Amino acid sequence: MHRLPTLELDWLRAFVTVADARNFTVAGEAVGATQSAVSVRIRKLEDRLGQRLLERNARHVALTRFGMSFLPDARRLLQLHDDAAVRAIGSARSRSFELAVSDHTAGDLLPKILGPMRELPDGRRLSVVVGRSPELAIAFAGGHYDAVIGRADDFGGEGETIIEDRMVWMTARSFEWEAGQPLPLVLLSAPCTVRDATLTALARHDVPWREAFVGTGVAAIQAAVVAGFGIAALEARNVPPDCVTQGAWLKRLPPLPPTRVVIRAREATATDAQIVRMIASALKQVAPRSRRRAR
Q1: CB of 152 within 8 A of CB of 194?
Q2: pTM for the whole thing?
Q3: Residue 14 in contact with residue 31, Cβ under 8 Å?
Q4: DSSP-based three-state secondary structure for 60
């Protein structure tokens, strides 16, 4: 009897995640593996299929023609598996509602906002993961989490708007930028849409800059600015109380774009929809903090 070839789920998940992210490092973070492990899984899948799925070099990842035709089949196989797993392990899953939230959404206010919802209307517990919008968007597309909250830019503009804000330049009250010197920037590490918006604004106005501090989360950026490392761009609601967003030399910096936070949820039960409405309503109450004026 002829034995049919099999396709490992880890290989398929690695391929679909890279196809969505177009980046091996980001895909690795989404599936909990190293970049090299993701590459190995995709090579094994290509060997089993006898076809190239991706064209890649140091800067670019693209689907081959075969990869484009195979991607919908790979998605269907993963969806069938994930649906079966949810049904089979439903009793364990039903004990929690998994929410992923962008680090930018509400900063240090997030525990206070979501704390009262630890127990949900149907007896489940709220389980919260805080991460970065691009990675959460990829994970959600890959079947993770019941709902996800993040920057609209990272979710392709899809989802219900829950917070609208503006990006502002901020720095410590005592900090001064010497005229003629590159702007010392406190930046989030790539990939990050806030980082991209910051650098795009400076490039359009020919403002020279240098990296003074690079961090992986909003809390690190806030701490570095308060410590006097330099200037950062964040949403107005995330400006620490002891920082300023206005002043003679800050006004020389280029304007920054508005921002929007959205919530996306899976089509599920009526209770799930009620939970999503509760979370969205609580976060909509987060008013952007007013700008601090320089002394």
Answers
A1: no
A2: 0.62
A3: yes
A4: coil
